[in-house]
Each structure stands twice: as C-alpha cells, then as structure tokens.
Design a protein that fits this description.
single chain, mainly alpha, 3 helices
Length: 62
C-alpha cells in the first residue's frame, strides 16, 4: 500500500475548503479514509494547522 505524506498546506486546504486546492486535498483524504493509501504527517503539522486556522477565524485569547 502506498504511503503519502500530507503537508500542512494540504491539511489546511481540506479543513478550510480553500480553493482551488480543496477538491484535490479531499480526494487524497478520501483515499486514506477508504484505506486505499496510508496517510501520515509530522507532529508539528497539527500545531501549524491550529495556528493558521485560529488566525483565519479570528480566535481571541481569553
């Protein structure tokens, strides 16, 4: 089975539905969900996604 490394930008494109890359990112995620490929990423990618998405939605510190 193929192993695919997900870059932070691919994850963010999928989560934020950013065009024009959303459809391609969704296809890759879908293949992983159907267990046709193995998806992996680095641990820092999760933190980077949180940081970028919080900025995009205007998260306020409390």
């Amino acid at each position: 089975m193929k192993r695919i490394f997900l870059d932070t930008n691919v994850i963010i494109d999928f989560l934020e539905q950013r065009e024009p890359f959303f459809k391609a990112a969704a296809n890759v995620i879908d293949l992983g969900a159907k267990q046709k490929i193995i998806l992996y990423t680095s641990s820092i990618s999760f933190l980077n996604c949180i940081y970028v998405i919080r900025k995009a939605i205007g998260y306020a510190k409390r």
